[in-house]
Every structure is written in C-alpha cells, then in structure tokens.
Amino acid sequence: MSESVYKVIELVGTSSESWEKAAAAAVERAAQTLRDLRIAEVVELDMQLEDGKIVTYRAKVKVSFKYEEG
Q1: Can you state the percent helix, strand and coil of the chain, rounding each to 5?
Q2: What distance in Å separates the CA atoms of residue 56 and residue 62, rounded to the nearest whole number?
Q3: What whole-number distance in Å separates Cα of residue 58 and Cα of residue 69?
Q4: Could you read off the pLDDT of 45-56 as tens digits, one per residue?
Q5: The domain spanning residue 23 has which CATH number?
Q6: What predicted TM-score, i.e. pTM, was given to this entire model?
Q7: Which of 44, 43, 63, 45 is nearest to 54 (CA)?
Q8: Which of 18, 45, 53, 59 could, after both became Cys, cross-link 22 (CB 3.0–4.6 A)?
C-alpha cells in the first residue's frame, strides 16, 4: 500500500442567504484552483450584522487535498 500526504487549508465562504451556501462557496472556489479535494469540514459559523439584522452568513471551512511535491 502506498502512503499519501494531504494538505489542509482554511477558507471562509460567505453568503447573504445561508451557512450552507457560504460553505459551498468556499468549496466551489477551492475546486477551481486545487486538484483532488478530499474532505471539507465546517469548523465555525458566524454572521455579520448591521442594525441588528443578518447581512452575511460566514462559514469557516477546512479543506484537504492530496499534496503533490514538485
């Protein structure tokens, strides 16, 4: 069996609609520039407020992908 190494990065996705869409935005953006994405883990959720109302949902996401040296 061959060994593999994975790199983990942390991203923050945003959405004016929901935390789910915020997390999806982070993963979709990562997929545009990274190959072989493996796991996405939501590690924190928060909201930006203005005048006591939710303006933006934010999802902090850890994404892992296979590390290729070279």
Answers
A1: 20, 55, 25
A2: 19
A3: 32
A4: 999 999 999 999
A5: 3.30.1660.10
A6: 0.86
A7: 45
A8: 59
Assigned domain for 12 exists = yes
Domain extent, residue 23, equals 6-66
The C-alpha R_g of the chain, in whole angstroms, comes to 15
Is residue 41 a part of any domain in this protein?
Answer: yes
Phi and psi at residue 35, in whole multiples of 5°?
-100, 155
Residues in the chain: 70
Residue 1 lies in a domain: no
Q: What is the pLDDT of residues 10-69, one digit of tens each?
A: 999 999 999 999 999 999 999 999 988 999 999 999 999 999 999 999 999 999 998 877
Domain tally for the chain?
1
The token duo for 47 is: 């909201």
